[in-house]
Structure formats: structure tokens, C-alpha cells
Amino acid sequence: MKIMICGKGGCGKSTITVLLAKAFQKKGYRVLVVDADESNLGIGRLLGTPVSGSLLGHLGGKKALQGKMMEAFPKGKPLELFTEKWKIEDIPADCLTDAGGIQLMPVGKIEAFGEGCACPMGVLSKMFLENLEAQDEDIVLIDSEAGVEHFGRGVEAGCDIIVGIVDPTYESVLLSQKMQAMAVKAERRIYFVLNKLNEQVEGALAGHMPEVEIIAKLPQKPDIFTATLEGQALDVRLPEIDELCEALLAR
Ligand SMILES: Nc1ncnc2c1ncn2[C@@H]1O[C@H](COP(=O)(O)OP(=O)(O)OP(=O)(O)O)[C@@H](O)[C@H]1O
Ligand SMILES: [Mg+2]
């Protein structure tokens, strides 16, 4: 199953991706985390490992990919990056970092001042995910960049389920409505997770979201916040995350 995690900046996408990755691994699944955030660098740290390599690097870097895109798109030709379907075991080793058995694959990062937009990374994320065949024992978690630009790029096309993370802000509520509408257009299933909850905000936040399906509610946990502030690996086990795994598997 390929599950894309998305939502507003800072709502907890990377945190929840890592907690889910560890929980699915404990259940015996083979887990691949796809880091589709072209800016943030923190997910390797959350998984407890320095990261090396990326899919973009494997393909020769951004300039090389842009060259292939310019060769194909203006002439209406298909961009041929993958000659055959990939399973997780087909992903080249130089794209992957092993984090205690969880495989992490960054799509590619913005590296230099003035290097231009991140569209090639969006194209690559979309094509990689459409080309990747997840087996029954596989869970692929895609940690996306903040906002809804990936919907504009059609990255969702290669995913089975979208999980929208909502923190207790009105901006996040508004974005959830937009994500819901875009997912319907993209014909993807979308479910929502409320994050950083305490008793005071839980009812109010859920009350703002009557028209979407909420499948989990996660508490505000000081030990999560402190671990990320200190640059430590996330080693927190939450019953709500185990329940979220079950809820996703049941859908
Ligand atoms: N349930 C939680 N309890 C406490 N703190 C949390 C929780 N979830 C996330 N955080 C904190 O919120 C901050 C943002 O989390 P995270 O980096 O996962 O968000 P993100 O959505 O991936 O952000 P970005 O859009 O920048 O990629 C971090 O400091 C993290 O520790
Ligand atoms: Mg993040």
C-alpha cells in the first residue's frame, strides 16, 4: 500500500510518517519511506540515521533530468525514466539509506542558491510512485512537502491513500477542505488525522471538520517535541499510532 502524508507546514507530517514507519515495521511489514519534501532535511534524523543518496542523484542530478524533460515535453514525447516497473527491491542501492531495516529514499533536494524551481522533483516523485509496485507485505509512506503543490503536480496519482494531517489551527482546517476537494478530483481516497491535541482543542477542531473522515486523533506529546528539538531519533510508541496503522490497513 502506498500512503501519502500531507498537510500544512509544521502540522506533523514527518513526525507521523516516522512513527507510522516504525509501527508498520513492528507489525512485520517491509517499509519504504519516500522523502518527497525537496526542502526539509530532517526525516533521516527522525529515523536515527545520516542520509546519503537520492533518486535524483542516481539519475544524474537535476540538470540531467531537466535536459530529459526539455527533450521530451515540448515535442509531446513521453519522458522515459523507467524502462520497467519497479518493486522495492529494484530501487538502486545508491538511492537508499537503511534506518534499522526501514528504507529511506529521498527523491531529491534543492541544493544551491538560484538553482530554479522544484518542478523536476515533482515530476520525478509522480513518475517514481506511478512506476512503483507495492506488494502485499509492503508499506510505502510518502512524506510530502507542506501545502498542496503536490496535488497540482499530480503526485497523488501513484498513491493508494492520502492521509491529511491537521493541527489545531484554522489554516489547517481550511487546507483540509482544499485537500478533500482535490483528492475527490484526483479520485484518491483521503482520510484525516488530527494532531497535537489536548482536551481544550479536540472538540473544537473536530467540530470544524464535519464533512471529512477523521481516522485518528493524536495527542500533543512533550517527548515528541523535545526529541525533535534536540535532534534525536523519534523513539516514542503511541497506542493511537498502532490504531492508525490498523485503520489504514482496514481501508
Ligand atoms: N503529536 C505531537 N506532539 C508534540 N509535538 C509534535 C507532535 N507532532 C508534531 N510535533 C512537533 O511539531 C513540529 C513540526 O513537526 P514535523 O516536522 O513533523 O511537521 P511537518 O508537517 O513535517 O513540517 P514541514 O511542513 O516543515 O515538513 C516538530 O517540532 C514536532 O516535534
Ligand atoms: Mg516535514
Which outline best applies? globular
Rg over alpha carbons: 18 Å
The name CATH uses for the topology is Rossmann fold
Strand elements, count:
8
* Alpha-beta content class: alpha/beta
Order of helices and strands: EHEHHHEEHEHEHEHEHH
Give the CATH level 1 class: Alpha Beta
Helical content stands at: 25-40%
- Strand neighbour order, sheet with most strands: 3-4-2-5-1-6-7-8
Helical region count? 10
CATH architectural grouping: 3-Layer(aba) Sandwich
Largest beta-sheet details: 8 strands, mixed
% residues in beta strands: 15-25%
End-to-end separation? 10 Å
Taken together, the total number of domains comes to: 1
Overview of the molecule:
Pfam families: CbiA (PF01656). This is ATP-binding protein. It comes from Desulfosarcina ovata subsp. sediminis. It is a single chain. The protein is of the alpha/beta class and about 250 residues long. It has a single domain, classed as P-loop containing nucleotide triphosphate hydrolases (Rossmann fold). It has 10 helices and 8 strands. An 8-stranded mixed beta sheet has the order 3-4-2-5-1-6-7-8, sandwiched between helices. α1 packs across α10 (about 240-250). The radius of gyration is 18 Å and the shape is globular. The termini are close together. The mean pLDDT is about 95. The protein binds adenosine-5'-triphosphate and magnesium ion. Adenosine-5'-triphosphate binds next to α1, β7 and α9.
